[in-house]
Amino acid sequence: MMDVREAYNRCEEIIAANSKSFYKAFSLLPKEKRKAVWAVYAFCRTVDDIVDEGKNPDVELARFKGTFQQFLSGSFDAENPMWVALHDVFKNFQMDEEAFNCLIAGQEMDLVDSRYETLEDLLVYCYHVASSVGLMLLPVLAPGKEAVLKEGAVSLGYAMQITNILRDVGQDLRIGRIYLPEETMRKHGLTEAHLLRNEVNQPFVAVWEELAAEAERYYRHSFETIQEYPLQSRMAVKGAGLVYREILFAIREKEYNVFREKHYVSEKSKQAILACL
């Protein structure tokens, strides 16, 4: 069996390479919690990559789903760092199995749906692919506080996923996905043709800002119970939320150019945000 320390190190490499914002924020955690977050992130990243990059994602995701069920029954590849680290996490924390299954179900949605009619429809998707991650992490970040923190974790997932959608409009278009709710687009006169022409016009800005307002509302709501987290977990969660929210400001500064450019929060801004926690 792969050494558990090596397994965690490999999971850390995955988050460090793929999500510098989360990596920086959750590095504030104590060692055991920090390692557990790395393992959960590796699970999430694996599922996401199957859908976005897999050669046969339907088959690969179904196989992964079966592999996870085997993992839950105690059978897993002892040379796979993600499963080795995750096994240790499940041994040390009271993990919520349903949250993991919820994430897989969300990725299944991406194989079927590429359009959403209403904001409410979109939030169902956001719950599955993002709020589920917060629910996975609650037993690690705040053991015994899951019930009081669940609503805030769900809201933070909504906020972060809407932020992702607003940042990745161009990238999603290139793979045939439009997450902007069709009802909101019609309300402001934004058409799919506008999007395909990469037009940053008044209707696009209006749709973008309406969704950004929803994201900001969910960020605020998620912070209402932040004091219920243990101190170091509180700093990590709030830091992650504030850094992610900053993406919205970065996009506005670049005049909403989300079709040809992917926007990030600068290292200087991240350090400034985290220094104020």
From TrEMBL:
InterPro entries: Isoprenoid_synthase_dom_sf, Squ/phyt_synthse, Squalene/phytoene_synthase_CS, Trans_IPPS_bact-type, Trans_IPPS_HH. SUPFAM superfamilies: Terpenoid synthases. It comes from the Bacteria. Pathway: Carotenoid biosynthesis. It holds the Pfam family SQS_PSY. Keywords: Carotenoid biosynthesis, Transferase. PROSITE patterns: SQUALEN_PHYTOEN_SYN_2 (PS01045). PANTHER family: BIFUNCTIONAL LYCOPENE CYCLASE/PHYTOENE SYNTHASE. This is Phytoene/squalene synthase family protein. It comes from Planococcus chinensis.
